[in-house]
Amino acid sequence: MENNALKLDLIILGWRKQLDFGNKKIQVIEPSKKKEKKQRKTIPAKKVFAIIKSFKVTQFYLNLSFKNMAINGILYPFFALLRLKTKRNIQINFFNKNEIIIEVENTFYRIFKAYINS
Predict the structure, then answer these.
(1) What is the pTM for the complete model shown?
(2) Is residue 58 a contact partner of residue 105, using CB atoms and an 8 Å limit?
(3) Contact 22/4 with Cβ under 8 angstroms?
(4) What is the pLDDT of residues 61-111, one digit of tens each?
């Protein structure tokens, strides 16, 4: 009947409203039901930290040099003490050569045990 009627559909974030300016009525259409999203299961932080702690450092080598020779000289005794305390290969050099080698290993058993026990 009213082909010349002016209609406006508003859809904002799932909310829908239809305005008809041809007649003075405003129709409200219920918003469509949202599809339920599957909730992803998140691993608690406690378990993540337990799994990280299950890793074992098998080799650690640090050879460090700063551009300033005075800083290298000041840090040399500190790194010597650190090497004795940690029983790791930590050195200061005076040749502007920086190296780091870290070898880390883990087994499925340790990961599984850390996950179950935490």
Answers:
(1) 0.55
(2) yes
(3) yes
(4) 999 999 899 999 999 999 999 999 999 999 999 998 999 999 899 999 999
